[in-house]
Design brief:
Helices cover about 60% and strands about 0% of the residues. It is an all-alpha fold. It has a domain of about 55 residues. The model has no long low-confidence stretch (mean pLDDT about 75).
Length: about 90
C-alpha cells in the first residue's frame, strides 16, 4: 500500500468516525528534517566535534583537487570566500 492510499484510507476512517483527518503526506517533512539536523548538531557538540560545516569543508577540499579533465564544471566551486576564509574574517 502506498503512502497516498494509506492517507486516503485514514481520511475515510476519520470521516466515518467524526474525527479530524490526518495531515497530508509531506506536510511536516521540513520540520522533521530540521529537528533531525538540530539533534545531530547537538550530539556533535556533546561528543566534542565541530557542530557545523565538517562535511561541506571536506567536500570542498576534495572537489578543489579534482582536475577539470575529469569533467568538473567550470566555475565550481562558486566564487567567494571558503568556510575557513569566512571564519578567519569574522574573528
Amino acid at each position: 500500500m502506498s503512502i497516498t492510499q494509506q492517507y486516503l484510507l485514514d481520511t475515510y476512517r476519520a470521516r466515518q468516525l467524526g474525527e479530524p483527518g490526518p495531515p497530508a503526506p509531506g506536510t511536516h517533512d521540513r520540520r522533521v528534517v530540521r529537528e533531525w539536523h538540530d539533534r545531530r548538531r547537538f550530539q556533535a557538540v556533546l561528543v566534542g566535534r565541530p557542530a557545523r560545516g565538517r562535511v561541506r569543508r571536506a567536500l570542498r577540499r576534495w572537489w578543489s583537487r579534482w582536475p577539470r579533465a575529469l569533467g568538473r564544471p567550470a566555475g565550481w566551486p562558486p566564487a567567494g570566500r571558503s568556510g575557513r576564509q569566512r571564519e578567519a574574517g569574522s574573528r
